[in-house]
Design a protein that fits this description.
The protein is mostly beta strands. 14% of the residues lie in helices and 42% in strands. The chain is built from one helix and 16 strands. The strands form five sheets. It has a five-stranded antiparallel beta sheet with strand order 8-7-6-3-9, with no helix packed on it. It has a five-stranded antiparallel beta sheet with strand order 15-14-13-10-16, with no helix packed on it. It has a two-stranded antiparallel ribbon with strand order 1-2. The protein is elongated. About 13% of the residues have low confidence.
Length: 171
């Protein structure tokens, strides 16, 4: 009688143990920073037309990159009290002072794409968007984002936009 239940009990224990292990191994990719109180990672934009990207979180560290694009979306991946480690659209990671960033809803066109009247690949084209164009970012749904580029409004494919998808953080 006892031997009949042994395989069943062992199976239940393995199942419960495996479920507990699976739950314990799910990575917590988004965390709230104790410095800003905001989630990390997150997208913010450059507040000024000239921002220095440094090798470390202080003015004593050398400047690695000079950004000259107000509104460029940057992925905040780490924080210290006054500094933010960011990743730019090319994948470069540098430190910038927190004052140089602001919340914003802009995206950077990574690959040339067509702005369309509706969120469908067959919808009427409105304008061609070249690589490097900054667009105002609206809501994204099912792979399409509502955007505005100068006087043109329409939909662009989400994968072509840096800053439109938190899943692209690669963390």
């Amino acid at each position: 009688m006892h031997m009949k239940w042994a395989p069943f009990l062992i199976s239940v224990l393995f199942f419960l143990g495996g479920a507990a292990m699976a739950m314990a191994q799910v990575p917590d990719l988004v965390r709230v920073s104790r410095f800003s109180g905001k989630p990390v990672p997150r997208f913010e934009t450059l507040k000024f037309a000239m921002v220095n990207g440094r090798a470390g979180p202080s003015k004593q560290h050398p400047v690695l990159w000079e950004y000259q694009r107000k509104g460029l979306p940057m992925l905040v991946i780490k924080e210290s009290e006054n500094w933010r480690r960011v990743r730019d659209p090319s994948g470069t990671e540098v430190w910038v002072h927190a004052r140089m960033l602001e919340e914003g809803h802009k995206a950077y066109v990574q690959t040339p794409t067509v702005l369309r009247e509706d969120p469908l690949p067959t919808a009427e084209p409105i304008a061609d968007l070249g690589r490097g164009v900054l667009v105002e970012l609206g809501a994204c749904l099912k792979g399409w984002c509502r955007v505005q580029a100068q006087d043109f409004r329409g939909y662009a494919p989400q994968p072509s936009l840096w800053g439109a998808d938190p899943g692209e953080t690669g963390l």
